Amino acid sequence: MSLFFVLLVACGDDDADTDAAPEDTDTGGETADSESGDDEGDSGDDGDVAEATGDPIKIGILTSQTGVLEAYGQQMIKGFEIGLDYATDGTGAVNGRPIEVIIRDTQTDPQVAVQQATELYENEEIDILVGAASSGDTLAVLPLAEVYERIMIVEPAVADAITGSEWNPYIFRTGRNSSQDAVAGAAAIAGEGTDIAVLAPNYAFGLDGAAAFKEAAEALGANIVLEEFPAQDATDFTANIQRIIDADPEYLFVIWSGANSPWQALQDMGVQDRGITISTGAPDIAALYTMDDLIGMEGFSVYHYTLPDNPVNDYLVEEHMARHDGEVPDLFTAGGMASAIAAVEALTNTDGDASADALRDAMKGMTFDSPKGPMTFRPDDHQALQSLFSIRLEEHPDYDYPLPVLIRELSPEETAPPILN
After folding, report:
1. Identical topology for domains 24-176+309-385 and 179-301+388-410
2. pLDDT at 53
3. Distance between CA atoms of 389 and 395, rounded to whole angstroms?
4. What is the pLDDT of residue 158?
5. How far is Cα 261 from Cα 201, in angstroms, rounded to an integer?
6. Which phi and psi angles does 64 have, rounded to 5°?
7. What top-level class would CATH report for the domain 179-301+388-410?
8. What is this structure's pTM?
């Protein structure tokens, strides 16, 4: 699960504006392309798809189409479809082999995830598995990739253990991990002599995130002057916040998830009015609507469609709005697109050979495009090194939520997490 930095715990926002997909959906490259419209940059046509006469390459997408992470799963699917069209120039094929996409719903339940993954491997005989929205679902499925000897591209689950203690050589991750969040959070605010306090919930999510942030911040020369760990279900943060005020840090770095957030208490006690700058992660758009009290804060963002400046992101924004009634892409849409581009790039490098041995050799150290810029699968643990963004939340007349405004791009080298496997 992720750091909030709400961002992104694998607990989603059921109120997000998404269209529920059927529980079991089979789509080939042609189906995905059929929604693409006539936007510039989509060079495919029906004739190109018809020419792909080789054996299909089967990609299974395992994600939350229902359950608490439904919004994340739907974003990821939309992004994957757009990414597949982008990476294959609209043909939906690689080296004459059509790509068949088979989608299954985990219901955000690890047991269901294992059942669906097993069915994809045994009955559908997929070549590559992509998913899942939940870290719990993903961790449950990881061993199957090794059992069936197939490549699994992890997107967007963020638990460090996926490319850490539970990793196996068939796992590649396009999504970032929790330690990358922490390193990015530190890179956004930490410097020589900077005094920082940390507020995080007292359970593994908060404690692990705080430890990773502290290590990264201290490596940059910052001083962690106080760490406060209220209970996971706390609703009264008065004592914690008062101790933070007394410590008088320059920054307060907050890691949180859940409805019982400390944002209102921090506002009521005037933390920012006392010269303490609050910093956290700017999450998906649905969560940004809850962050009015944090306007002016400096932190980091994994993705907001206004932040990257590259042709892939331009294509994603234009194509997503064309296909989905003017709706802009969100955090996990970009991740879905990245996973599709990575799969196609790997298959292109193997001349359409979808065997795990060929793909694994091609993917180690592979650099590929994404809406966030180039990503590289680190050979040691197959974690994608990628850019994140140092941002400030600001009011903007064209947005009815606080807008993450770019301070600077954090390079893949700056945000590289420790190797944990």
Report:
1. yes
2. 76
3. 18
4. 87
5. 10
6. -85, 105
7. alpha beta
8. 0.82
List the chain residues with pLDDT less than 50. Answer: 1-50
Digit-coded pLDDT (tens) for 191-236: 999 999 999 988 767 887 888 899 999 999 999 999 999 998 899 9
CA atoms within 13 A on the CB side of 304: 26
Q: Can you tell me the distance from the alpha carbon of 304 to that of 292, in angstroms, rounded to the nearest whole number?
A: 17
What is residue 258's predicted lDDT score, i.e. its pLDDT? 63
Fold of the domain built from segment(s) 24-176+309-385: Rossmann fold (3.40.50)
For the chain, the three-class secondary structure string (H helix, E strand, C coil) is CCCCCCCCCCCCCCCCCCCCCCCEEEEEHHHHHCCCCCCCCCCCCHHHHHHCCCCCEEEEEEECCCCCCHHHHHHHHHHHHHHHHHHCCCCCEECCEEEEEEEEECCCCHHHHHHHHHHHHHCCCCCEEEECCCHHHHHHHHHHHHHHCCEEEECCCCCHHHHCCCCCCCEEECCCCHHHHHHHHHHHHCCCCCEEEEECCCCHHHHHHHHHHHHHHHHCCCEEEEEECCCCCCCCCHHHHHHHHHHCCCEEEECCCCCCCCHHHHHHCCCHHHCCEEECEECCHHHHCCCHHHCCCEEEECCCCCCCCCHHHHHHHHHHHHHCCCCCCCHHHHHHHHHHHHHHHHHHHCCCCCCHHHHHHHHCCCEECCCCCCEEECCCCCEEECCEEEEEEECCCCCCCCEEEEEEEECCCCCCCCCCC
Which amino acid would we find at residue 195? Answer: D
Write down the domain spans for the chain: 24-176+309-385, 179-301+388-410
Report in angstroms the alpha-carbon separations of 207 from 169, 267, 324, 409: 28, 24, 39, 27
Say what the pLDDT of residue 212 is: 86
C-alpha closest to that of 283 among 181, 132, 138: 181
pLDDT digit string (tens) for 36-85? 333 433 433 443 444 667 899 999 999 999 988 899 999 999 999 999 99
Determine the pLDDT at residue 43: 38
The residue type at 354? A
Contact 244, 197 (CB under 8 A): yes
Which whole-number Å values give the CA distances from 210 to 43, 151, 202, 252, in the listed order?
47, 32, 10, 12
